[in-house]
Amino acid sequence: MATVLAEEATEIEADFLRRKDGVIYADGDVKIRRGNITLCADQAQYDDAMQMFRATGSVKLRDNKEYQLTGDSLRYYWLKKSGQMQNFVIDFEESSLRASGKRVLLEGDEIYADTVEISSCPKEKKDWRLLMDDAEVDAEGVQGHNMIMEIVGVPVFYVPYFFASRNKKKRSGFLLPSVEYQSGEGLAVAAPFYWHLAPHYDATIIPRWGGDSGLLLANEFRYLTSNANGEFLVAWTPWEKNKRHHLSLENHFGTEHWNIIFKGENVSDGNYFRDFSDNNERLVKRNLPIGAQWTYVKDGWQFSVEATDYKTLDSRLNPPHNVIPRLSAKHIGEKSNYQWTTAWEYASFRANRDNQTTGDRWLWEGEVGRDFYWYNSIFSPSLGWHAVQYRLKGGRQPSFGTPYFRLNTETRFPSLAEFFGGGYGRFRLVYAYAPVVKQDDAPIFDTQALQLNAYNNFNHDRYVGGDRISDVNFLTYGFEIRRWREAREEFFVGLSQRYYFDRPRVVLDGEIEPTKGLSNVLLSWNILPNTMWRINGEVDWHPNDNDFRRFHIDAKAVFPGGRYLRAALIQKEESVLLGAASPLGKHLSGGFFGRYLLDNDRFSEVAAALRLRDDCNCWMISFKISRNLADDGTDFSFGFELSGLGDIGADQYDDVVSDLK
Fold first, then answer.
1. Do 430 and 473 contact (CB within 8 A), yes or no?
2. Pairing mode, if any, of strands 37-47 and 563-570?
3. Of 570, 654, 650, 588, the residue nearest 180 (C-alpha)
4. Rounded Cα distance, 149 and 157, in Å
């Protein structure tokens, strides 16, 4: 039986309904709906004049958008949107958190409660909980006073004020701390404070205490506007006699056609990242750039102005030149199957070390070509000119220039695409010719040999940079097959080889000098035989001496049940990558990852991690130990997560799994 009240869309359903003196009495499986609110109870009364409900027995008040409130009894006024419930439990719609207590007051969209307990654990098993004297719940989050955190019944943490966000709206407050251990520093603890200054900019203040390094204070400022974004980082050690610091900034400004980038980083000493950063940053950061770049692009034109200065942290490395400034312009045009490109650049190279050559360099390149179509083939011949002029310190002014010719052809095979169920098969042929010119008296500022593979083996030049023009007279031919399914590449195989009609005479120091005749055979593949396996690799084989100059194969698998496996052989580095991760039981998961050097017969880096979850999945703890023999460092880190509340540190088990995916 059901009754609909006329004054507003309020629907009451129950096993038994009766009306007396303006009051509706409902008994047995009562359901009341009005707007987004649904009320369920064993018994309920509705006073028409006061617009007030009374409910008793297994009372449930549900907001379809935000929460469900359960208790023993409820009194609620519709017009005032206020009420009171005894012995309540609040289940939040978007979170696994649950709040409970003796009494709760409802005032509009806000909830006030006394003596509150918050947890994501089941009622019968409280592995962790937060106890507060009072709490307030609104659209932004949950806040309370005198919060005590208990783990398995033992108090472990206290704060006088607590706030947990329920949406993506930012709010100032302390973030959960992070803890890590490094063999060179010992135990380090950081307690960041997030400062929400405005919707489009904020700051994070991070005091960090390390066992050997002492106190480090850091401040990270971020901003975001309609046409700009950036980050600033300042960190320093205020109590050390020899102050140490880290400064970093990156800013982007731009519109549809122009863009400005400011980027820079500086540290007080070469050991800063070793003492205050993880292994990856210690190994990667060797040259710190400081510079700016302005770029304008419109109607086929591109203009650029940039300047970059480098600070080298490792005195054993050969640092790059400082470039102050670099000016460039480029135009690409097309009309009636004709294409043309012209580019110009000026760069001033400054020494980063006393023994480096310095000077100015001018580049100019122009090219024109045309496309011809025939059935499933395209032929694209082009002619170009490349010229370089220097003005070096000491008065030398070497210069050189040369014309070049190249022919790109491609033939596609639709029948192969049909056979593979999507994708394509194509044959490519590229011929390139450029005569030899004398370049021995020119310096090397920013040029290096191009690493050939199945993707860039069809490049007409052998170098990246402007200091050398490779003399070429070769033919590159190859075949590749690709297949896609549901926007995912399932199959790729590429095979290519070059034939040199003449031996190149322009060779960089340390470069493997090509010989006349057949070059290396390059084979690359990326295959997904099913939803679990991915196998990719590359072979660089020279037929004349039957030598594998580069070879690697990498097999990765993701099995049902959260099991991962990876095995890779990298011939160039003479190393083997091995890794696996899997559940070790109902609650425990473990994984490892390592790089084994075949020539030294030892591991160069290893990492192992464990993750433990409870039965109800309301908390997780993870540990990872890693060792890198490059700097003889051992790190220990852990993560601790309370479901629905947040985490202390990252999931260390996931960190190892990311190396296996």
1. no
2. unpaired
3. 650
4. 5
3-state secondary structure of 374: strand
**Token pair in block for residue 318:** 């050969």
- pLDDT, tens digit (0-9, with 9 covering 90-100), for 428-441: 999 999 998 888 88
Write the DSSP symbol of residue 183: T
Q: Is 314 helix (H, G, I), strand (E, B) or coil?
A: coil
Q: Is 605 helix (H, G, I), strand (E, B) or coil?
A: strand
pLDDT beyond 60 at 482? yes
Given a cut of 70, is residue 353 above it in pLDDT?
A: yes
φ, ψ of residue 645 to 5 degrees: the values are: -110, -45
Helices (H) and strands (E) in the chain, counts: 4, 45
213-225 pLDDT tens trace: 678 889 999 999 9
Count Cβ atoms within 10 A of the Cβ of residue 111 and give its class: 0-12 exposed, 13-18 middle, 19 or more buried: buried
DSSP state letters, 501-523:
SS------TT-----SEEEEEEE
* 335 CB burial (10 A radius; 0-12, 13-18, 19+): exposed
- Average pLDDT (488-509) is 86
**CA distance linking residue 590 with residue 656, whole number of Å:** 9
One-letter-per-residue 3-state SS of 93-151 = CCCCCEEEEEEEEEECCEEEEEEEEEECCCCCCCCEEEEEEEEEECCCEEEEEEEEEEE
Alpha-carbon distance of 121 to 89, in angstroms, equals 13
What are the DSSP calls for 237-291, one per residue? -TTSSS--EEEEEEEEEE-SSEEEEEEEEEESSTTHHHHHS-HHHHHH--EEEEE
- Alpha-carbon distance 147 to 164, whole Å? 12
Whole-angstrom distance, CA of residue 602 vs CA of residue 428: 43
Q: What does the radius of gyration of the chain's CA atoms come to, in whole angstroms?
A: 34
283-287, 390-394, 403-407: the lowest-pLDDT one: 283-287
> Which residue from 580, 590, 643 is spatially nearest to 617, judged by alpha carbons?
643
Identity of residue 338:
Y
User: Tokens standing for 544?
Assistant: 């004349």
- Three-state secondary structure string covering 277-298: CCHHHHHHCCEEEEEEEEEEEE
If pLDDT is split at 50, 70 and 90, which confidence band does 191 have? confident
Closest CA to 283 of 260, 250, 317: 317
As a whole number of angstroms, the distance between CA 596 and CA 602 comes to: 6
Alpha carbons 462 and 472: distance in angstroms, whole number = 8
Instruction: Give me 649's structure tokens.
Output: 């540190």
Other C-beta atoms closer than 10 Å to the C-beta of 115 total: 13
